[in-house]
Design a protein that fits this description.
It is built from five helices and seven strands, in the order H-H-E-E-H-E-E-H-E-E-H-E. The strands form two sheets. Strands 1, 2, 3 and 4 form a four-stranded mixed beta sheet that branches. It has a three-stranded mixed beta sheet with strand order 5-6-7. By secondary structure, the chain is of the alpha/beta class. Strand 1 and strand 2 form a beta hairpin.
Length: about 170
C-alpha cells in the first residue's frame, strides 16, 4: 500500500514546485542529488547520470527495476528544494550496459556543432541515442533546434524538456 501512495505524494510534491523562471544554482543541485543517490543503498548498482538546467533535473541512465527508478525520483525530490522539475528518463533494464557511451559522446558533439548557430540556450544530453534537449528558449527556437537534431544520423528519439520563454 505504501508503495502505491509514494508516486501520488511525489507527484503532489513536484506539482507544488514553483513554475516561474528563477535563479538557480545548477551545480549545487547536481552536487546534492549526486550525494543523495550515492548515499541511497538501493541505488548503488544503478547507472544514474544527473543534469540540471535552470532547476530542471534530468535523470538518465539505467535502473535494474521499476522500484529502483522510483526510488531515484524520491531521492532526488528530497535532496534539494531548488529543483523546479524532475524528468526521470531512467531506462529499466535487466543488466547495466554502457557500451554505447562512445557513440553517445560523438552524437553529442555532432548535435552541439549542428545547433551552435541556432541557440546558445540549449543543453544536449544523449543516452543510448535518445537526445534530451533542455534550456530556456522561445517556442520557435525550440522547434528549430528539434528539427535540426532530427536530421542528424544516429538520433533514435528526441525528448524536449524546454522551458519556453513565450
Amino acid at each position: 500500500m505504501a508503495m502505491r501512495v509514494l508516486p501520488f505524494l511525489l507527484t503532489i510534491l513536484l506539482l507544488s514546485l514553483p513554475a516561474v523562471a528563477q535563479d538557480v544554482d545548477d551545480a549545487a543541485i547536481v552536487s546534492r542529488v549526486e550525494r543523495a543517490i550515492a548515499n541511497d543503498e538501493t541505488l548503488t548498482d544503478a547507472d544514474i547520470h544527473i543534469t540540471s538546467v535552470n532547476g530542471y533535473v534530468l535523470l538518465t541512465g539505467q535502473a535494474l527495476n521499476a522500484d529502483q527508478k522510483q526510488q531515484a525520483s524520491i531521492a532526488v525530490a528530497f535532496a534539494t528544494d531548488a529543483m523546479r522539475r524532475l524528468i526521470n528518463e531512467l531506462a529499466v533494464v535487466d543488466t547495466i550496459d554502457t557500451s554505447f557511451q562512445n557513440s553517445d559522446a560523438a552524437l553529442t558533439d555532432s548535435i552541439n556543432t549542428a545547433i551552435s548557430d541556432l541557440t546558445e540556450q540549449t543543453t544536449v544530453v544523449v543516452h543510448d541515442g535518445t537526445v534530451h534537449l533542455l534550456g530556456r528558449v522561445s517556442r520557435e527556437q525550440g522547434n528549430t533546434v528539434a528539427q535540426a537534431v532530427s536530421k542528424i544520423a544516429g538520433v533514435k528519439t528526441i525528448r524536449l524538456s524546454f522551458e519556453f520563454t513565450d
